[in-house]
Design goal:
The strands form four sheets. A four-stranded antiparallel sheet has the order 1-12-4-5. Strands 8-7-10-9 form a four-stranded antiparallel sheet, sandwiched between helices. The protein is an alpha+beta fold. The protein has two domains: about 230 residues, Porin chaperone SurA, peptide-binding domain (Triger factor/SurA peptide-binding fold, Orthogonal Bundle); about 100 residues, Chitinase A, domain 3 (Roll). Helix content is about 50%, strand content about 15%.
């Protein structure tokens, strides 16, 4: 087996950091229990969707055979079973060799291994920072996991199927919470956007916060199957033109919509509500140009049949105030900045780490398969 070593730190060649205290966790605990429910959306975006794995120092047998080490992160081993478990969160086991092309599978394995490496590095950093998680927070997270299932019996079935004991599950939750707290301390505390930042962004990008002109429209549709013969299209046009004449003679557009339209909007008398200019199809947009509130278009033909539109009202475009958009700006800018800050954090951790790739993900997959 070819040994590939990535030595990514400035220390003396061959030097290794001391491994952090191990947290005994089960390598195949389901991601839905551990990371997705416990890390949260922001941190979850920074971590590959892989389960926490047991920090072992030597290969040990598993149910599927001997455990092979595919990588070491500052001396902590990542096994082929860890990699398989990570890949299982991306591709169902049953589709491994059925629906995924080999090149794509190799790509996914590489991403899964990268995720395991980053997760291990973040856990090690949390240990170095002496991140503390009160036992009550572990129990609260465990309770949230239970409540994500239909009942306690369903949770227990999922736990048993994963092969995890309750102590193993609590240990995995502890690990995930340590990683989350480290992220909050190192990344999130420094990338959150304040009101002054948001105000500056609003001032520099006023066009982003203009609410476009809106039109309130009602419709009558005489639908025609696209594959229908010419006579069917002719009859539908004649019906639509007859309705147009009735409306011009004073008949209620809304009443005719309820009685004749084939569109679901007939249940609301044809009312489509307010829509932004440009959101309707091209034929509708052209027909509405120059129309005044209360007026009805001529018959419009589309691939769906024939239509009559009534312009009910127009709302002009309006510049939103900073107060109206402040919360959205702060949230969106924070997300962008934190995503970049999280990526930078991972790069720093990798640069200071000794990472050994002992098997390529593709080779590990062939051995495991």
């Amino acid at each position: 087996m070819t040994k590939v070593v990535w030595q990514e730190h400035d220390a003396t060649p061959g030097e290794e950091r001391a491994a952090p205290p191990p947290v005994a966790v089960y390598s195949r605990i389901r991601i839905a229990i551990v990371l997705q429910l416990l890390i949260g959306a922001t941190v979850g975006a920074q971590l590959a969707p892989v389960p926490s794995h047991e920090a072992r120092r030597s290969p040990t047998p598993t149910a599927s055979g001997p455990r092979r080490v595919v990588a070491r992160v500052n001396g902590v081993e990542i096994g082929s079973d860890d990699l398989d478990a990570a890949l299982n969160t991306v591709i169902p086991q049953t589709s491994y060799h059925q629906n995924v092309k080999p090149d794509k599978l190799d790509e996914l394995r590489t991403k899964a291994l990268d995720g395991l490496i980053d997760e291990e590095l973040r856990y090690q950093e949390a240990s170095r920072l002496k991140i503390q998680v009160p036992p009550i927070e572990v129990e609260q997270a465990l309770d949230r996991a239970r409540k994500s299932y239909s009942d306690s019996a369903a949770f227990e079935r999922a736990r048993r199927e994963s092969g995890a004991t309750m102590p193993q599950l609590r240990a995995s939750i502890l690990r995930a919470l340590m990683i989350r707290k480290a992220y909050e301390q190192v990344v999130e505390s420094k990338c959150r956007v304040n009101e002054a930042d948001a105000s500056g962004y609003y001032r520099d990008n006023p066009a982003r916060f203009v609410l476009p002109e809106q039109v309130h429209v009602s419709v009558i549709t005489i639908g025609v199957d696209s594959s229908a013969a010419a006579p069917a299209w002719k009859r539908a046009r004649e019906r639509a033109e007859d309705l147009a004449r009735q409306i011009a003679g004073g008949a209620s557009f809304e009443t005719l919509a309820r009685e004749h339209s084939s569109d679901e909007s007939r249940l609301k008398s044809g009312d489509l509500g307010f829509v932004h200019r440009g959101q309707l199809n091209d034929e509708f947009e052209r027909a509405l140009n120059g129309l005044r509130p209360g007026q009805v278009t001529p018959v419009i033909q589309t691939i769906y049949g024939f239509h009559l539109l009534k312009l009910v009202d127009v709302r002009p475009s309006v510049q939103k105030t900073f107060v109206e958009v402040k919360t959205t700006i702060m949230r969106d800018l924070s997300e962008v900045r934190c995503t970049q800050a999280g990526a930078d954090w991972s790069k720093r951790l990798r640069a200071a780490a000794r990472i050994e790739i002992l098997q390529t993900p593709a080779a590990a997959g062939r051995i495991a398969g």
